[in-house]
Every structure is written in structure tokens, then in C-alpha cells.
Amino acid sequence: MRTHPFKADLLLVLVTLLASSSWIFSKEVLAELPPLLFMGLRFLLAGLLLAAFSIGELRRFHRRDTGRVLLVGAVFAVGITFWVFGLHLGTHLGVGGFLTSMGALLAPLIAILFGERAGRALWLALPIAGCGLAALSLDSHFVFGIGEWSYLASALFFALFINLSARAAVKTSVIALTAIQLVTVGLLLIPISWFFENWNLSVTTGIWGWFAASVLLGSAARFLIQTYSFKLAPAGHGALVLTLEPVWVAIFAALWYAERMEPMQLLGCLLIFIAVLTTRAKSLYAYVQAIKHAKQAR
Prior knowledge:
By secondary structure, the protein is mainly alpha-helical. It has one domain (about 5-295). It is built from 14 helices and no strands. Helix 6 crosses helix 7 (about 120-140). It is globular and about 55 Å long.
């Protein structure tokens, strides 16, 4: 397929907007639905929708790959469980967005366990992120509670998921792999919810609107557009754009919930964002070079 970097960028910005708005959708649903039940239903339905768009790819799926793909889905389920508890118990949505974004920072660190070499950018980024976490913990107005630790735990499992998923995607279509992973999350979380949560479905009608938005926009549409956009540009091109998600989360939280960050919170989040960008230094350089070449071509 012919590359269209600018179109890919616009679509990936849309992906980050959908992913960030999903935080708001989910927060609203959690006001009345149990966390595990909500996430199980959300990802099961989103996975089935994605499967409908990838029937051809799913038919080419080899059964010998089932165990590996299910393992990836199980790791994703654990990460999602920590994330939704962070969302449910955390005190600040915007800060949660930046804590979760550390998954992108931890991914190359975990990749060392898979035999990959860590670049200098990673070792530079880690102390910057550490300073960011220190700034958050030193803020007298911010409590590093169970919700915040849940966000960090989700970042760790998302980092492991990124590594496992990247290796699984070598032999499986990305859209088909995503569909299977989402269905796996749903099939794991719904039975767990049945045993540990109280299923009270007598909720207000408006909640189902937020639920539908989280399924259709925050999950299915997001992954479909993301998969398509990756085909429009060279590999790794979109990594930099996707780092915008925590920024949008903070903006949406400020607009919807009137959240405000204290100076130390802003400093902490800024340092974490800089750390994540540092690990994307090569992508940033390649992105700038691509823009220069595009201008020269005109």
C-alpha cells in the first residue's frame, strides 16, 4: 500500500482522541456498573465487532498459535483489570493518564528479558520518570493511593503485553490478533465478575449510552482506525503520535470534571511525558526528517 504519512498522522490523532475519551466514557459507566463486569462486556462486544471486520484473517489463523495468542490476551486482561481499578479508585484522572503512559517507557525495559538491547535513550528516560514520580509523591495535595498504584501496575502489565503482542503479531494479522485478545479479556473477566461482584443491572438509561460509546468508539472504532493508519506509514511512524493520549486525558478531565493540577502535579506529569518522549527519540528524529522531505518534495 502506498504510504500517506500525513493522513496516518491525522488518523492517529483521532485514535488518541478516541482512546482518551474512553477514559471519560468508562468513568461514567463505573458510577453504576461493577468494574470487572463492565470491562468484560465492553471488550467481549468490541472483540466480536472487530472479528466481524476480520473474518478473512481469522480463517487464516493457525490453531498452533492459539496458546500464544491466549497468553497475550490473559496478560492484557490483567493490565486492564488494574487499569479499571485505578480508574475506579484513583483520585485524579489526568495524573492517571500519565502514570498509565509509563507502559510505553517500561516496554523497552521488559524487552531486555526477551533478548533485546536497551538503547541509551531508555537509561536517560528512567531517572527522568523517577523524578516525575517523586514530584507527584511530594505534592501535599496529592495522595499516592491504591488507585495510583493500580495505574502503575497496569503500566507494567501493558509493557509486558506490548512485548508479547509484538511477537505474536509477526505470525498473525494485527486486526485478527486484537479481536481475539479482546474476546479473551471478556471471557476471562465476566466469569470472575460473576463470582466476586454484585450484578445489579438496574441502572439509569443514560449509563447504557456511555457503555455503547466505550464499546463502539473507545474500543472497536479506535482499534480499526489504528490498524488502518499503521498501513499508511512506515513501521514506528505512529509511536510518537500515540504518546499524546495522556495529554488529551488531562484536558478532557479538566473540561468534564473540572480537574485541576497543582504545580508539583504538573511538574511530575511533564517529567513523565518527557521521559516517554525520550524513549521515542529515534521516532521523533525520523518524524522531523519526514516533514522536511515532504516540504522539499513540494
